[in-house]
Amino acid sequence: MATKPAVYVVLIFCGALYGVLSDDAFYEELFIKSLEKGNVLSHFQFTTFWNSSISDPETFKHYRLFPKALGDVLSKYKVQELHLSQTQGLWNYDLWGYPPEDAPPGVELWVWFQPQNVNYDQLWAELVNALSGLFCASLNFMDSKATTIPRWSFRPAGIASEYYSFDSRFMRYSALPKEIVCTENLTPWGKLLPCETQVGLSTLFNAVKLYDSSFHSLGLHVRPVCQDHDCTLTSVELKQSLSVVFNTAQSNKGRYSGYQNWSFRTLFDRNLYDTCPMSTYSKVYVDTTLHPPPKMELSPQPDEIIVINRGGSKHTYGVYDLKQHTNEKEGFNLYGTYATTVQYGDVKPPPLYAHRYVTGYGLERGGISCTIYNNLDTNLTVIYMETIPWYLRVYFSSIRIETYGIAVKPYKTHFVPSKDRSQPSQLELVFRLRPNSVTEISMELDRAFLKWTEYPPDANHGFYVNSAVISTMLPTGEQYTALPQNASTIGDSLSDGSSKVFLRLHTESLLVSLPTPDFSMPYNVICLACTVVAIAFGSLHNLTTRRFVAIDPEKRRANPLQKLKTLFSRKKSENANDVTDKNDKKTDEDNDDDKNDDKVENEKKKT
Amino acid sequence: MATKDSAFAEKRTNVLAAVGVGFVCLVIGLPLWWKTTEVYRVSLPYTDIDSLARSKIKYTVDINVISFLDDTSKVLASLSRLLNEKLGKTIDDSLISHYRTFSREATEKEKNILYSTNSLTELDLAMTQSLNGGKSNEYYFILLPSNTNFKLDTTTFGIHRLVFIKPSTSDPAKVSSDIVPLVKTVLIRETTIIKGYSTAAGVRSLTPDKEMLRSVRFHSGYDVILTLVNPRPDIFDVQWNIETAVNKYFDPLIEMMRNYTEINVKSQMLYFTKLQTKPKKDSTGFYFTMKELPHMINPLEAKLGSPATTNPELNFIVYIPSKDQQPLYLKDEKGNSVKSNSFLSPQWGGIHIYNIDASTNNKTLPVQQNVDMSQVMNVFISQLRLLLNIHSQVSQDVQYLPLGKSSVTEWELDGWLRSKCIENIATSSTTLQSLSQLLGKISNIVINDDIGKEVEQAVLSMKESLQLLSDGFLIEAYQHSKNAVQASEKAFFDPSLLELLYFPEDQKFAIYIPLFLPISFPVLASLWQSFKWYRNLNKPKQE
Prior knowledge:
A: eleven-stranded mixed β-sheet, B: alpha/beta, five-stranded mixed β-sheet, 15 helices, 16 strands
C-alpha cells in the first residue's frame, strides 16, 4: 500500500485556485496546435467568472455576464459542479497526443450536488431533463440505467472541502455514447456566451466547417473557484470550450495540396473582425512546440513568444492579443505556413494511452478487453473505470489484469454489480503499470436477452457501451495540453510550472450486438399457443359432450365422395320432414370429427 | 328398453358435461377475462363533480358605514336598509353577490382620532388600527364632516380598507346611491369577477374581452424577469442598479403576496440582441407605430425563457436603442408619441424604450451610462399591476391615497383574492368536468389511485372553498381554491393517463380471435344442442 498516497494526489484537489477580484469577468481564447500527419487542432475557450458564491441562493438572481438559462438550472437543482461534454468523433491519442479537454464520443455529464436533504437520484433525474431542454440533447436518457456513482475517478474540480470531495453520494456520472452532436447542440451552447456568436472569437463558428472535421467536441464546465489568493471568497467559473481537429493536408487544394498550411480562412472560412467588448482579454495562442519556426512560419509574427517548462517538458507558445490586431476593422487572418509537404512516418505516441475492444464470438457470451500502454520508464498508478450496461452481465470473477502474462493485483477494487433494468454494473480499479509495459484488463460477460419492447427501432445496429475512463498523475508534461486544475484560462496555464500533471483519458466506446429476436414473433407465439389450446380444448370438449360409436364397416368402405353424395341426398330428404336433425348437421359442418358420430345418430333415428 | 335407458343416461351425461363446460366458460371464464383485462380505474366522484359544476358561487362582503356627521342616528338605520336593497341585486345567474351592511355612528374615541390627525394618510392608518387592523373582506365607508383638519375634495380610497366620503347631504337615499357604485365598480369590481368567472368556466363570447386577454391566468407562482437589452455594448456601457431597485419596488409587493402567490424576480442583461424591424424616421427621431410592436417581441423572445421553471414568465424589458436609432419613440394610432415610451404585451410582459444621451463625440468608447431605475420601475410596476389584474381602470370621480412603499393596497389585494378564488373554483370545476367527459369517451384511460386522490382532494377543497366564500372568509376560501385548482390540474395532466391511450382496439381483437373463435363455437353449439335435447325431453312428458 505504499503507493496509496500517490493515488490520492490524483484525487485531492489542490486549493490554490483563484480568479480575479473585480466584478464579473469574461475571457475569450483560442489555442491552435499543429498535430502530426496534417492535422490542426483549434481549441476555443470562453471563461466567465461570477464573483459570487455558488451555494448562496441569492447569487442566481441578477445576471450580468453569466447566462441566466444555465444559472436557473444550477440554482434550482443546487449544483456545485457541472461538467458536460458533447463530442462527435474519437480523439486519436496515438497520433494527436493529449487533448486540451478530454471527452468520450457522444455525451458525458458528471455533476456534484451541494449537500442537501433530498433524494439525489430524483434531483439528478430532474436536472438531466432540464439540461436536455437547454442543450437540445437527449440527456433525458441518462436515467438510473445509465447513471453511476464513481468513487475515485471523478473528484470535484473546483474548491471543495476534503470531507465533501470524498463523499461520492453527492455526485452522479452518466454518458450516452450513441448521442450524435451537431449544429442543434452548437446553437444553444453558443447562446450562453455573453456575446453569443455575434461578435468576437465565436464568429469563427462556421457550422458548415466545424462539422466537416475529424473531431469535434463541445464542453461546458461549471465549478466554484477562489476569488483571490487567500480564498476567502469564492466565485463561479463557467468554462465553455470547443475543440475541433481539421486535416488541412487533405483539405488544402491546388498549390498547397499536401501541405499542412492553415489560416482562419482555410479553417473556418472567415476572418476575425472584432473581439467581444465584454471580454477582459481576447487572445490566440499557437503551440509551436511540435513544429518550430523553420518548419512552420506564423504570419503575422506573434506579439509574444512564451516558453514554459511543464512537467520537465518544454512548450513554446506564440501569443496574439486580438484587441490589438482587430482594431483596424479589416479582418484579422492568422497563417501557419509550412516549408514542405506533410511527412508521413512513425509518430511518437504519448506516455500513456489505451485501446479497448470487444472480444469473443457469438451472441451468447463475450468479453471486453482494454490494453493500456505505459511508455514511461517509471511505475504509474492509474484508476480504471468501466461502466457496463445491465444487459451485458459481467462476471466479477473473470476480471483479470495482466502485464505480459503476469497477473497484477489491484490496490483497490470497487465493483457494483448491475441490476436488471435499473442499474449498470460499475467497476473501478486502482493498480500499478510497470515501466514500459503493456497491461491488459479483460473480463467476460453474458449478453442478456431483452424484452421485445426494450429493443430500439434499429435493434440490429447494436448497443453502445460507454468509454472506459483512465485517470492518473503523469510525471511528465509531454504532449500535454490541458489546463492545470488551478488555472481557469489558457493564459493562466502558461505560468504553470508543476512537475506533475493530472491526466484523464477516455478509451473508445464499444458497439456490442445482442441476440435480436424476430419482432413478429410475439404475435406468432400468441397465434400458435392459442391454436394449440383451441385444438386441445376442442377434442377434450368433444370427448365429453359427444357419444362415439363404432360404425358399420360396410359403410366405411365407401369412398369420401360417395359419402358426401349420400350426405347431401339425405340432407334434402331430411329438410323436408325432420326439423330437429338440421341442427345436428349444422354442428356436422363445424366439426368434421363429429361426422361419423352424427351419422350414427341419424341412422339410429331413422331405424 | 335397457339400451334405450343407457342411451338416454349417456345422452344426459353428455348434456350435463356440455352445460358444465358452458357454465365454466361463460359464467366464470368470461367475467374473469373481463375483470383481468379491464383498464384500472378508481371510481371518481362523478356526481359531486357534476353538482359542483352546476352549483352557484356565492361571495359575501361586509360593508360598514361609520358616520362622523352630527345627528345621523335615525338616518343610519334607513341607510343600512337602503344599501342592502340596492346592493342585493345579483347580476349573473351562476354568481351570487351577498353584501352584509351595517351602519353606525362614530364612537368618541374615533372622533378623537379624527380631530387629532392632520392628513388623510394619518387618519387612514389610525382608523385602521382602531378597527383592529382591518379584517380582510370588511370595508368601512367613513362619512366625514366638513370641519376636519385637512381638505377632502372628493371620495378617496385609502391604502387599507377604508373609503372616505364627504356627503353633500345627510339624505340616506343620496348617500346610499353614492356608495353603491363605489362598491360595485371600484371596491369589488363585479364585472371583473364575472368576466374572470366566465373565462375560467369556458363560456365563449364573440368579442374577446381586453381585460381578460391582458391578464395572466392564475398560477401558484410567477417569474418576473427584468431584462436590459443592449444591442451595442461596445458603444454604450449601460449599467443598472437592479438589486436596490428590486428591493425598493418589488419586494413590498412580493411580501404582500407571499402567502397567496409566489413571485420570483430575476434580472439579466442581453447584449447584441437587435430588433429585426427598422424604425421609421421623422424630424424628432425614430419611431415605431403600434402595428410594428408585435415584431419587436419575437426576436427578443428567442433569448428569454428558462428550462428550469414551469411558472408563467412575465418579461419586462428595458431596450437601449443603438446610437444610430436614437432617440426612439413609440407612436399610438393617432400619431402622438407615447408618454411612457413603453408598451404592454398581454400575458407576456412589457417593453420600455430607454433613450440615452447619444452624443458620443470626444468621449472614449464605450460611454458609461446608468439607467434611472425609478423611471423604469414605475413603468414596470404599473404594467405588472395590469398583468396581474390588480389595478382597476375605472373612470370614476375618485381619488386614491398615494401608495407609499407597497405597490398594492389592501382592498386591491382583497379584490384580487376574491376574483382569483372564483376563477380558481371555476377552473377546477371545468378541469374535473373535462376529465370525467374524457373518461366517458375514451375507455382506455387508466385512473390510478394517485389521480383518484387528487380528484377527491380537488372536490373536497372546492366544497370547502365555496362554503368559506359564502361565509365571507376570503383568505381561507382562496387558499382552498388554490389547492383545488392545483389538485385538479395535477390529476388532469398526469402522464399516466396517456399510458394505454395508443393501444388500438383492432390489435386487441387480433390477439383474442385465435383463442376465442375456435373455443366458442363448440361450446355454444353443444349448449344449443343440450337445450334442444332438454326441450324434446319435456315435450313427450306433457303429452
